[in-house]
Amino acid sequence: MEEKINVHEKPRGEKVYIYINEYKGTKYLHIREWYLDKKDNEEKPTQKGVTLPVEKMAALRDAIDTLLKG
């Protein structure tokens, strides 16, 4: 996994990270909620999130730009 960037922290301590990961030779962009596992004091991903092929990053950026203009 490449660098995780924290984009949001929820009131109960969960964090939303954006990062790129490779699976079976394909790179994916993840926007995913992580939580702190109190048993081993380690952050772990949840199923709450979105995974897109990196080829869709430009379309995502364009959609965000469109929303910000509106």
Key phrases:
70 residues; alpha+beta; four-stranded antiparallel β-sheet; 19% helix
| Largest beta sheet: strand ordering | 1-2-3-4
User: Which descriptor suits the 3D outline?
Assistant: flat
Number of helices: 1
Strand runs, count: 4
Q: Major sheet: size, sense and barrel closure?
A: 4 strands, antiparallel
Averaged pLDDT: 95
Which percent band covers the strand fraction? over 45%
Order of helices and strands: EEEEH
End-to-end Cα distance, whole Å, is 34 Å
Secondary-structure-based class equals: alpha+beta
Radius of gyration: 14 Å
3D architecture notes:
The protein has 70 residues and is α+β, with helices and mostly antiparallel strands. Helix content is 19%, strand content 54%. It is built from one helix and four strands; from the N terminus they run ββββα. It has one helix spanning 57-69; strands spanning 5-9, 15-23, 26-37, 42-53. It has a four-stranded antiparallel beta sheet with strand order 1-2-3-4, with no helix packed on it. Strand 2 and strand 3 form a beta hairpin.
Secondary-structure map:
Layout: E1 5-9, E2 15-23, E3 26-37, E4 42-53, H1 57-69
Put the structure in a nutshell:
This protein is α+β, with helices and mostly antiparallel strands and 70 residues long.
